[in-house]
Write a structure and sequence with these properties.
One of its GO terms (molecular function) is identical protein binding. The protein is of the alpha/beta class. The chain has helices spanning 4-14, 48-51, 60-70, 84-96, 111-126, 143-148, 180-193, 219-232, 283-286, 302-317, 320-341, 370-382, 407-424; strands spanning 27-31, 34-37, 42-45, 103-108, 130-134, 166-169, 200-205, 208-209, 215-216, 235-239, 263-266, 277-282, 347-351, 357-361, 385-386, 388-390, 396-399. The strands form 4 sheets. Strands 4-12-11-10-7-5-6 form a 7-stranded mixed beta sheet, with helices on both faces. A 4-stranded mixed beta sheet has the order 1-2-3-15. Strands 13-14-17-16 form a 4-stranded antiparallel beta sheet. Bound molecules: 4'-deoxy-4'-aminopyridoxal-5'-phosphate (PMP).
């Protein structure tokens, strides 16, 4: 049997430290909401591969669809010889688009690529350079998406100057002392001090900030941004990479607000564990890029498209939108019970729509407590639960369990979470 400790040494020798793994235990197999490591230890997965596994590990329907595709072909490059699963998936995504105008979609591989291409499309359609994003937002690790990301450490440290024409507004969050009026005042100042609205191509926002701490964008803000975009001909982009595909109890997070974006970026849970991303958008905007300007050798891999078509079926057949709300209510209930027991468990600010639930770990005086958060996560792992942190202070624990998790496993995972919190404070 291989040991985690042996692989750990090889890992550290072979891979640069810039790619930091949360845990140095090595996966061997996984099924729905459970993972086993190479030593045979079992873990309940509350991280879902960072929001990728809304339909769980290896959903049988997804596996069957990919197996069938494997038996036909694995790659042609859509720019050379196109194929039906790509077209069919775009048709399905266009049908799901949360706006009333006709839609078109284009596929890539990663979330960052989807964001990059949404910006390219917005710039092509408006002929303008500027992009406005939000503090605490996360959009990826490529040079452009790193610049859009609103967090310096660790994402921007040592990586040089940002590309031009990127601006950030403070994201409204009570815990950061910022409200919607502050954000809108900053937007007004930005337009007077730094860039004319007529030079802005796009505003990009996560309907619920993911890496930033599971902070929902207030509806009032989204409505105001929609109005600003309409007034000045700016493209409104909803980054749904983390919020998409039933996580929040709706197909897309922005649907909670009723605000219609012009473009959406999607990835992660779109293809149930296969690398696939896309931009869904208003057809008139999507057609702005010239032929050949969009694409990529592996973009819209047929295997991933087959997986995604099955994922969309599973979401519908298994009622995962409603299931997200039920799971979220159970998680909230368990956390609130811990708080009510009043034995000093240092959790606060339980929040998030659907099954996109997070809470903060704070000191007795209410300050963010990143050190205890780390200890809770490591304690949980030792007890067989994979947990993830997030938030600009590193003191938020977010729960991204598969929406296909059984009630029994959810309960077992929540009991482990409770034990880790009680043991660590
Ligand atoms: N946008 C959001 C909202 C994300 O959460 C992420 C990934 N955490 C990305 C973009 C980047 O996706 P990827 O890591 O697949 O490039």
């Amino acid at each position: 049997m291989s040991h985690n400790s042996d692989l750990r040494d090889r890992h550290i020798a072979a891979i640069p430290r810039g790619l930091a793994s949360a845990f140095l235990v090595y996966a061997q197999r996984a099924e729905n909401s459970e993972i086993w490591d190479i030593e045979g230890n079992r873990y309940i997965d509350f991280a879902g591969g960072i929001a990728v596994l809304n339909t769980g590990h290896r959903h049988p329907k997804v596996m069957a669809a990919v197996r069938d595709q494997l038996d036909h072909f694995t790659h042609t490059a859509f720019q050379i010889l196109p194929y039906e699963p790509y077209v069919a998936l775009c048709e399905r995504l266009n049908g799901l688009a949360p706006f009333s105008a006709p839609a078109k979609s284009v596929l890539f591989s990663t979330g960052a690529e989807a964001v990059e291409n949404a910006i390219k499309i917005a710039r092509a359609s408006t002929g303008r350079p500027g992009v406005i994003a939000f503090s605490g937002g996360f959009h990826g690790r490529t040079t452009l998406t790193m610049a859009l990301t609103g967090k310096v450490a660790p994402y921007k440290v040592k990586f040089g100057v940002a590309p031009p024409a990127i601006y950030h507004l403070p994201f409204p969050a009570p815990s950061h002392g910022v409200n919607v009026a502050d954000t809108l005042r900053a937007l007004d100042t930005l337009f007077r001090a730094d860039i004319a609205p007529t030079d802005v191509a796009a505003i990009i926002i996560e309907p619920v900030q993911g890496e930033g701490g599971f902070l929902p964008a207030p509806t009032e803000l989204l409505q105001a941004l929609r109005q600003t975009c309409d007034t000045h001909g700016i493209v409104l982009i909803a980054d749904e990479v983390q919020t998409g595909f039933a996580r929040t109890g709706k197909m897309f997070g922005i649907e909670h607000s009723g605000v219609e974006p012009d473009l959406l970026t999607v990835a992660k849970s779109l293809a149930g564990g296969f690398p696939l991303s896309g931009v869904i958008g208003r057809a008139d905007i999507m057609d702005a890029a010239e032929p050949g300007g969009l694409g990529g050798t592996y973009a819209g891999s047929p295997l991933a498209c087959a997986a995604a078509l099955a994922v969309l079926d599973v979401i519908a057949e298994e009622g995962l939108l409603a299931r997200a709300d039920t799971i979220g209510a159970s998680i909230r209930g368990a956390l609130e019970e811990l708080v009510l027991r009043n034995d000093g468990v240092p959790i606060s600010a339980i929040r998030g729509p659907g099954a996109m639930i997070a809470f903060d770990i704070v000191t007795d005086s209410g300050e963010p407590d990143a050190a205890t958060t780390k200890r809770v996560i490591q304690t949980a792992l030792a007890d067989g639960l994979v947990l993830l942190s997030c938030g600009i202070y590193g003191n938020t624990i977010r729960i991204l369990c598969p929406l296909t998790i059984s009630d029994a496993l959810l309960e077992e995972g929540l009991a482990k979470l409770g034990r880790a919190l009680v043991a660590t404070h």
